[in-house]
Design brief:
By secondary structure, the chain is of the alpha/beta class. The chain is built from eight helices and seven strands. Helix 1 crosses helix 8.
Length: 254
């Protein structure tokens, strides 16, 4: 990585929306670091694709639900950056990694809630905290939420509630980091055709048609609909956008 390029870290960047974000950010001339939980092969393929664009990229394994591993990850990251660029800092952090939970209020277990809480809120909170000393002043954070904080779909009470907590956290982060000129925004995708949640939106024709029917633009979302928005938030043109929830849903359930 060369010091002239800015650097973005995307968690969960080996597949789905995270992969699309990483590629879109690289197209902006920004170098990329991605994390992956288990699928190193997929992560390596993303890295290779980014390198073919002429951008620098690297992948690290990270379980964002396990805060006990964060110190080791930060040490690996900063050691790599110092070796490659001469300094340990990044410019943008995109908190994207996540998993789905579809369970009604009556059946949700404490174990299920804890698992989703750890990755979607606790992990986001403390990974950001660990990385703040290495986030350049004037940089940015993009937290990834969901249209489910606005639209109620039975079975998503825990997931939607925790994403709402992330949206509130985003505003607090924007306020507290303003003196460092670090802007913090949240992108809330609508229903997207990926393998998220076992490919529920992509593969279930009934769900896909239902969502398309309540969306102003007449279809469900695709990964390419999201990555470019996140990439835009990592540019100077987006500097004055701060503490905002940007829903990217094609006008779903309006």
């Amino acid at each position: 990585m060369e010091t002239k390029n800015k650097i973005a870290l995307i968690t969960g960047g080996s597949r789905g929306l995270g992969k699309n974000m990483a590629l879109a950010i690289a197209r902006k001339g920004i170098d990329v670091v991605i994390t992956y939980n288990a699928n190193k092969k997929a992560a390596d393929e993303v890295i290779e694709e980014i390198q073919l664009m002429g951008q620098n990229a690297v992948a690290f394994q990270l379980d964002t639900s396990d805060i006990t591993g964060f110190d080791t990850f930060v040490e690996q990251l900063t050691t790599h950056l110092v070796r490659e660029t001469g300094q340990p800092n990044i410019d943008f952090l995109i908190n994207n990694a996540g998993t789905a939970l579809y369970a009604p209020v009556t059946d949700t277990t404490e174990q299920q809630m804890d698992a989703v809480f750890n990755i979607h809120y606790k992990g986001v909170f403390f990974l950001t905290q660990k990385l703040l000393p290495y986030l350049n002043n004037g940089g940015g954070i993009v937290n990834i939420s969901s249209g489910l904080t606005r639209m109620v779909m039975p079975g998503s009470s825990v997931y939607g509630s925790l994403k709402a907590a992330v949206e509130t956290l985003t505003r607090y982060q924007a306020k507290e980091l303003g003196e460092r000129r670090i802007r913090v925004n949240v992108v809330a995708p609508g229903a997207i055709e990926t393998d998220f949640g076992g490919g529920r939106v992509r593969d279930n024709k009934e769900i896909n048609s239902q969502i398309a029917g309540i969306t102003a633009l007449g279809r469900t979302g695709l990964p390419d609909d999201i990555g470019g928005v996140v990439a835009f938030l990592c540019t100077d043109e987006a500097f004055w956008i701060n503490a905002q929830r940007i829903e990217v849903s094609g006008g779903q359930a309006i």
